[in-house]
């Protein structure tokens, strides 16, 4: 994998699958994920809220941005800014996410439901709403050379360390949400009604479409040779 000058990690350039880490509040980062549409354009999942012109120009090499997706009711900060940059792009989210975003982000504009996005996805690309979601939590995956690239949204995290803020540090430590690759248990309390049912569904999908690359909603990308087995074990442990 290569990383561009302005921070896109190219997971599969031919298939338009890239990731980018961005800061959404001081000291806190999230990940963006792109995949191909049937039209040849791009789907952008969790777009960064303050994209630079250079970042957008680099992405343009892989296709026009035609769809913007909020993977839950929290990852919506970039929808409005990207719609201003790409006025022809449509915004999408799962229904539960739409409800929350409509109350909190006036600049997001009208969002279409996930079932209208699904037929537009290229072969080998999927966006799946989790069972028992409180606010439209989803995961996404795209077929790439050598396997599948996954975007885990707020279900899995890979944060290098505990947050410096004392209260957040306690919460992350108490819920075992960091450090390292693990279920994002703190977020689960906000986005899931039935944690185990959701992680069991993800486990089934991981077994059917083993990840060669895992892009968590927060934290570092994982592409070690054993990432599929590690993810399967992690989910098995979490659902016991």
Query: Main beta sheet, described?
Result: 8 strands, mixed
How much is the average pLDDT?
96
> CATH H-level name... which superfamily?
Ribonuclease Z/Hydroxyacylglutathione hydrolase-like
Q: Kindly estimate the percentage of residues that lie in beta strands according to DSSP.
A: 25-35%
Q: Report low-confidence residues grouped into runs of 5 or more.
A: none
CATH T-level fold name: Metallo-beta-lactamase, Chain A
Question: Biggest sheet: strands side by side, in what order?
Answer: 1-2-3-4-5-6-7-8
Identify the overall geometry: globular
Helix content: 25-40%
The CATH architecture can be named as: 4-Layer Sandwich
SSE order? EEEEEHEHEHEHEEEHEHHEH
Structural class, judged by helices and strands?
Answer: alpha/beta
Radius of gyration: 16 Å
- Given the structure, what is the number of helices? 8
Number of strands: 13
CATH domain class name: Alpha Beta
**Oligomeric description of these chains:** single chain
Counted up, domains total: 1
Give me the secondary-structure topology.
Elements: E1 2-3, E2 8-12, E3 17-25, E4 28-36, E5 42-45, H1 53-60, E6 65-70, H2 79-85, E7 90-93, H3 95-104, E8 111-113, H4 114-117, E9 125-129, E10 138-144, E11 147-159, H5 166-174, E12 180-183, H6 185-191, H7 195-208, E13 211-219, H8 227-238
Summary keywords:
single chain, Metallo-beta-lactamase, Chain A, alpha/beta, globular
TL;DR?
By secondary structure, this protein is α/β, with parallel strands linked by helices. The chain has helices spanning 53-60, 79-85, 95-104, 114-117, 166-174, 185-191, 195-208, 227-238, and strands at 2-3, 8-12, 17-25, 28-36, 42-45, 65-70, 90-93, 111-113, 125-129, 138-144, 147-159, 180-183, 211-219.
